[in-house]
Amino acid sequence: MFASFARLARDLVPVVPRRRHPPRRALGVVALAPFLALLAVSFAGRLLADGETSGPRLLSDDGSRRSDGADREPAPSEREAPAGRSHSSIIAIDLADDRERQIVVDREPGQYLGHPTTVLLEDGKTIITVYPKGHGRGAIVMKRSDDGGRTWSERLPVPESWATSKETPTIHRIVDRDGKKRLIIFSGLYPIRRALSEDDGTTWTELEPIGAFGGIVAMSSVVEIGRGRYMALFHDDGRFLRNEGRARAFTVFKTVSDDGGLTWSEPIPIAHRPDAHLCEPGAVVSPDGKTIAVLLRENSRRRQSFVTFSKDEGETWSEPRELPPSLTGDRHTARYAPDGRLLVSFRDHAQGSPTWGDWVAWVGTYEDIALGREGQYRIRLMDNHVRADCAYPGVEALPDGTFVLTTYGHWTPGEPPWVACVRLRLDEIDALARKANAKDEDEDANEGEKERRAGAESSARNPADSAPREP
To answer: For the residues of 102-142, what is the DSSP string, one character each?
Structure first.
């Protein structure tokens, strides 16, 4: 199967609403085996180059990677999978040169723009994004889209204190017990601060501390765990929790608000392993609303990403365990599609992956995560040209099934990062996979016919070779 792109296999998270999702629909895709041995790829052409043709492609066979003169390749320890660890077996699809999907959110000559998060308002089309002018720190910029990410506003006015942000900002929707809606922006390190809006982002408060504690990438996820009650997740390595300034063990923490985000509890650890550096928690609630899964970056780069589960609204947590290579990366952000499937976007950091350091998305089901399965698709969204400096993504699912994914990256060789968004639907990805499947089945059939004819011709030339032999 899949002769044109799978022969190599023969050798080998945001506020998460508490709601039910419909069961996964049958896709009608022909069974895909043998599967890929992770994303063998040859990428031709330059991203967003003027005058280029573009369009989605399935990843190719030879595993080669393009070099544009930038510091692009992973270190050998990250490029080579450890002994005994296979690459991902999953359908790999490349949208990186599909320019029609790619929308400029913000770009400034000579200025590093990074690490956006997004929030979708209740009208199903208004998206607000915030991001820093700098790598993980710097003045907070805010923009707004009123048409589901097709176009974006100019930079919007923000309070003066937002220029003092020291970390990646995050934005979330919170609703209190009386139905009062708020937007909340967090800015991390010590102390963690927050700003509030009660008019859907038109006006904002200044940044103010939420307590005498700090942390990193605060809050990478916020989960509703009751009416007006929310659990926010972040991590720290010992330097900022109590402002001690000394790095020790990576630990993931939770803090809880019972008043719609106005006040927050003292942090409590939820995940730690002595043999792994767990961080950047990305939460997703199971379709039945009974379990919270948290996907975790592994920062020592010796292990794959991890996942931990809670079945009691965050009171207790399972021992973190490794995820498959297809979900290994940084800053996982997840949303459900109307058919119940999950899309998770992140920075690819799987060892041995040909899309290492690029912006990718994973498609599968919650059950795939719970059972440790590879999932259905791995999609390269855009090609990052400098190391792994990209893809802290915002992900929003519109009512019509369109996903709007927003992040930063070195999308143009020789230029600093800028913010882009990509729009896609899973039925489009399904159609692309079916088309490739049909093409590869035809190619396999043609190859089989050629082999049959060659065998027949050989027998005709050498009849003795095909004659029965005496015992």
So the answer is: EEEEE--TT------EEEE-TTSS-EEEEEESSSS-S-EEE
Separation of alpha carbons 364 and 427, rounded Å: 13
Model pTM above 0.70: yes
b/e per residue 131-140 (b: at least 16 CB within 10 A): bbbbebbbeb
CA dist., res. 390 & res. 378, Å (int): 17
Tokens of 59: 């990843």
Place of tokens 């190719």: 60
Contact present, 253 and 215 (Cβ < 8 Å) = yes
Its domain, for residue 405, covers: 94-431
CA atoms of 333 and 397, how far apart (whole Å): 12
Each residue's pLDDT expressed in tens, for the chain with a length of 471 residues: 333 333 333 333 344 444 333 333 333 333 333 333 333 333 333 333 333 334 555 554 333 333 333 333 444 444 443 333 335 678 999 999 999 999 999 999 999 999 999 999 999 999 999 999 999 899 999 999 999 999 999 999 999 999 999 999 999 999 999 999 999 999 999 999 999 999 999 999 999 999 999 999 999 999 999 999 999 999 999 999 999 999 999 999 999 999 999 999 999 999 999 999 999 999 999 999 999 999 999 999 999 999 999 999 999 999 999 999 999 999 999 999 999 999 999 999 999 999 999 999 999 999 999 999 999 999 999 999 999 999 999 999 999 999 999 999 999 999 999 999 999 999 999 999 888 777 766 666 677 767 777 777 766 666 555 444 444
The CATH number assigned to the domain holding 318 equals: 2.120.10.10
The first and second tokens of residue 324, run together, are: 């498959």
Q: Does 408 map to a domain?
A: yes
- Structural domains counted in the chain: 1
Answer whether residue 57 is part of any domain: no
The dihedral formed by the CA atoms of 84, 85, 86 and 92, expressed in degrees to the nearest 10: -170
d(CA 471, CA 461): 24
> 3-state DSSP call for residue 195?
strand
Q: Does some domain include residue 283?
A: yes
Q: What backbone phi and psi angles, to 5 degrees, belong to 228?
A: 75, 5
Do 216 and 188 contact (CB within 8 A), yes or no?
Answer: yes
Q: What are phi and psi of 409, to 5 degrees?
A: 175, 170
- Tally of CA atoms within 13 A in the half-sphere of 126 that contains its CB: 8
Assigned domain for 168 exists: yes
DSSP per-residue string spanning 236-294: E-SSSSSS-------EEEEEEESSTTS--PPPEEEE-BTTB-EEEEEEEE-TTSS-EEE
The secondary structure of residue 327, as a DSSP letter, is: G
